Structures are given as structure tokens and as C-alpha cells.
Model the fold of this input.
Amino acid sequence: MQRATTKLRALVKAGKFLDLPSAYDPISARLVESLGFKSVYNGGFVTGGSTTISEPLLTMNEQITVAGNMANAVNIPVIMDAGAGWGEPLHTMRTVRECVRAGIAGVHIEDQLFPKRAHYHTYVAHNIPINEFRDKIRLACEQRDKSDKDFVIIARSDACREQGFREAVKRVNLCADQGADMGLIFPRTPAETVKTPKACKIPMVYVQSRGNRDGRPLYSYRQLEDMGYAGCIDAILAIGVQFHFMRKALAEIKKTGDYTGMTPAEFVVARKQVEDLIGLEDYYRIERETVEKVYYKKAKKSR
Done:
């Protein structure tokens, strides 16, 4: 079976647009795969939110456990948010090694301060000096080449928020010289969004921050592809949709004692789809051929 890293490397090399909806557990990752997506994303926000730990407090093992469980449930590549690599260059090298061992296909590594502060979620960026970021990406790429050359390293700069667009582009291009495969910044305006793929040396990924409160623009995947982007991370989608609709369902049950958001027939279909997605039909077949064999013979005779 082809490794997930090799699949991801082939997609990047072929120039295939990476549509990366977020997921935070095996069933949501498998749902993404079942609908025809070629890759899936596990971000710090959805892991931090779904675990109620919050992204700034996540440890490396907590994040890799979630992304690794997703990777083991699907046959498409999982790209993970590796934050600031959980430390300095040496720690970032270990992060890459552990991700490869867990079956994760790629990561993005950022120029944020570590440990991250909760204020990160108020759009306050604490960027490390450019030379420190350069060294972190250089050594992450060295570790990639030792562990699995197909593993994908995305250099992420948050500098747009504080030092401006030019600084963010400068940082990504410096990382390209160190061996980064792709880049990611946070353009603040439509004009910066259009400029980004042209100004950067490596294929660029856009982060679709649905629900953001600082005015970052949102685009369709088609619009981003037309601008020259190599992919889009839909960072908040999974937890935002799940929270919104689950909250509505629970509120209705609390108020009325019943749930009418789906018809009984729709729930029958949904339940069966969950069973199919987790592979229960295969399990039934195996049991019929082994431990349930006698029961099914008796049932046939009694008909």
C-alpha cells in the first residue's frame, strides 16, 4: 500500500489543489474521505476546542494522538497543525519524527512564540526572530529527509498581523531556501490575498478562517485556485458546524423533550450511514462465516 506521505507528495508535485476540510476524530476524517476529498486536515483549533484544552495548551502528544488516530482511519493523507513545533529546532525535529511514525503525511510549522499564549486567539501574534524561524524550518526539513523524504513541510508565518505582508513573504521565501515544500501566511486584504501566490517562491496554502472576527476575507476553493493557491485549509469548519447544529438539537430537546430537526426516516438513513462508514457490514459478514455460522444455519432451517 502506498504511504500517505507519498500520496501527498504526488498531489503537491502534480499541482493538484489541496482542499483540506478540518476534522478532529476518525469518523469525521472518514466522512471527508467518503465524499471524495483527497486529503484532510487536523488543526490546533479543532483539537483544542473538541478536547476543551484549547490550542495554546495542547501538548505535542495530544495533537499527534488525534491526527494519528485520523490517519489510521483513512487512506488519504492527513496534514496536521504542528504549531510552533513544540519548542526550539531540536524539539521541532522530534515533532517531525513523531508525526512520521504516527502516519501523518505533513505539517505546518509557524513562527509563533512557544509556549503559545491564549491571546493568540485574540489575533495577537508573537513572532520569533526571523533567523530563529529559519533555523527551525531548516532542521525540520533535515529531519524530514532522514525520516521520510515524502513528508511535507509547510512553513507558516503569522507576520502579516504585526510586521506586515512584506515581512511574511520574506519569511516564507527564506524558508523556501531552507527546503520548505509549501508556505502559508495570513493576508489581511483582498489585494494581499491576490499577491501572495505571485510573491512567494513555493506553492501557497490559504487558511479559510470561518467565523473570524478580525475581517480576514473568505473565498471559495475555486476562487483561491484561480488566484494561484495550491490548497485551502478550512480550519474551523468541523467544530463550527458540529457545535452549531448539536447545540440547536440539544436546546430543542431540553425545551420540548423531542427533536424534530430530522425526520424519523432521515435518522434511519443517518444511522445506517454511520454503521456503513465504520465498517459494520464487513464485521457482520465475518461473524456470519465464523462465530455466528451455527445460528444462521438454524435460522435458515426454521424458515
